[in-house]
Amino acid sequence: MAKTQDRPQRAVVDPGRQSTMDPKPIEIRDDYKGSDKLSGKVAIITGGDSGIGRSVAIHFATEGADVVIVFLAENDDAAETQKKVEGLGRQCLAIKGDVGDPSFCKKVADKTIDRFKRIDILVNNAAEQHPQESIEKITPDQLEKTFRTNIFGMFYMVQACIPHLKEDACIINTTSVTNYKGSGDLLDYSATKGAVTAFTRSLSESLLERKIRVNGVAPGPIWTPLIPSTFKPEEVADFGKNTPMKRPGQPSEVAPCYVFLASEDASYMTGQVLHPNGGTIVNT
What we know:
There is one protein chain. The chain is of the alpha/beta class. It has a single domain (33-274), classed as NAD(P)-binding Rossmann-like Domain (Rossmann fold, 3-Layer(aba) Sandwich), CATH 3.40.50.720. Helices cover 37% and strands 14% of the residues. It has nine helices and seven strands; from the N terminus they run E-H-E-H-E-H-E-H-E-H-H-E-H-H-H-E. The protein has a seven-stranded parallel beta sheet, sandwiched between helices. Helix 2 links the parallel strand 2 and strand 3 (92-96). Helix 1 (51-62) packs across helix 9 and helix 3 packs parallel to helix 4.
């Protein structure tokens, strides 16, 4: 059974930073053993500085991949992720910027090619959320910003990387359980995640002839920096308790889905979504 936290989660003042979280997320199981599933591969992971993105970077490195992590502002978290990846004997390039800017996304692809000469895996994971009690409180600025990061950024990253993706490359997009079950206080976020799922399915068809696989992962409530930095303290304390498993998940319980989808183990899968969500049945 996967190791889980046994202490209550707490809200933090410093938003979006894993270093201030209490308790700390579990990034990888102590007994996780890599088997070179991604040996020689180069992966770009947006939102790779913390949370699910950091866990994916660590798992990919454990499986033999070199990693490029893209992050918005959290320098300390990015440096820690880089340190952990390099501690596993793999190379890590950290690039700071906003995936909502198409020129920045091209810069990421160009820098990756300059450093590693190839791109094999693109993980579109960067996202933001801003809970609101009603639709009336969602401002045009918030709506545009959430969509620009969560779905426009995926388009821009794919457009930037696609000229460099060869046969057998893959794209993995992070969607969410909120796409399938809804969320009354995350209307704009949930809408973007619905778009991500539709984008994943459509892009998979678009890239079939190029033999590039496109899949997604739809996590449930996972203990990441997004949670204590955006929810109220009482919501943080109860976070994840409404799942059938009665607890939040850890990044270490999600990242292996990305390893699977990035590896040859998933060679017959495209246009699909995996659901590490604590037992919630989505029937789709």
